[in-house]
Amino acid sequence: MSEIQPLTPADIPAVAQLFMRVFRKSSLPAAESLKSYLTDLYLNNPWADPSYPSFVSRRSDGRITGFIGSLPRRMILEGLQISVVVAGNHMVDQEDRELFTGSNLLKRLFGGPQDLTLTDSANEISRRLWERLGGVTLLNYSLRWIRILRPAAFALDLLPFGRESASWGRLRAAAGWPGDIVARRFLRPPAREPIAGLTGAGVSASLMQAALPALTAGRRLVPLYTVDDLSWLISMAGRKEQFGDLRSCAVYDGDALLGWYFYYARRSGLAHVLQVASLPAAAGRVLHHLVVRAFDEGLNGVTGIVDPSLLREYHQHTSFILLRDMYAVAYARSAGPVAPLLGGSAFLSRLEGEWWTRLQGDRFT
What we know:
The chain has helices spanning 12-23, 32-42, 101-110, 124-132, 151-157, 166-183, 205-215, 227-237, 283-296, 311-316, 339-342; strands spanning 3-6, 55-58, 64-77, 80-92, 116-122, 136-137, 143-148, 198-201, 221-223, 245-253, 256-265, 270-278, 301-305, 320-323, 327-331.
C-alpha cells in the first residue's frame, strides 16, 4: 500500500526517472539536467513553502510510483490576496500501478491550504479526473488562436515529415512564395497603419511589476508578482527550448506604455505567445504590433491561448479559434475564486500556468 508524502530533495532522482518513463516513453537513465531542473522548479522557486508541497506516492519498499508538482503563486481576487497552486506533471507509473494512485495524489494536493488550484496543461484523462473530484474545465481559457501569416509555408509545416532535411527546405522555398501570393487573396498580410507611431523596447521585470496593475484594471482575478518573482519566471521561461528563443517587446505610444508581449520563435516557424498584456483600450494595437513584428521576422504565423476579453481583436486579425488539445482546469472549495475564470474576467496567460516549463516538450540531455 502506498502513502502520499511531500516531495523531498532525495526523491528527485526517482521522480526524474518516473518522468522519463511516463512522459518521454523512455527507459534511458534520467539526465542530470532533468534532475536539476525539477529541483529548481519545485523546490527552489520563489514561492517554495512547506505548506504547499509537491507530492509523491511511495510504496512500502520506498519506490516512488506517482508524483504531482505544486508551484505556489499569489493572486488578487477582487482586491483581496489569495493563495494559488499551479499543479503540474501529474504522473503515475503504469508498470507498477496501484488503484486510485492518481486520484489520491490529486486529492492530497486539493486538500492543501490554498484558495485555488489550477493547471493549463490537463489532457483528457486528467481533465475528467479533476472534474470527478470537484474541479471545473475552463473552456474559455483552453481555446487557442492562430493568425496565419504565410499560408503556404504554414500548411507545409503541418506535414509530419522532413522538416530538417535540405530537400524540405528547398520545397518550402519553391512552394512558399507563389503559394502565399495565391493564398493572400484570403489571408492578407497585416496592415501597418494601426501601429504607425508606435515604438518597441525591452521588457524588464521591474517594468512588468510596476505596470501590471494598470494593464489588468477591471479584471476580477489577477496575478500578484514581486520583481524577484518575475525575474525568476522570465529566466526559467527563457530556458525552454521547444519553440525557439524567448523574445519580448514593450509597446509605447510616445512615452506612454501600452503593453507588452512575450513569444517563442525560431526562423520560419510559428510565434508561440507566452503573454500579451495591455491597457484595455490599447489591446488591439499591442496585438497588431506583435503580428507585424512576427511577419517582419519571417515567421509563418502567431499562436497563443485565447484571452476571452480579446475575442473582438482576434476576429479583426482574421484569426482562427480552436479548442486546444490541453485544457485549463481549476478547483476551489468555494465558488469565489473560480467564478472569474468561468466568466472570462481573469488575467490568465501561459506565464500563470505551467506550459512555459521545460517539462512541457523539451528534451533533456
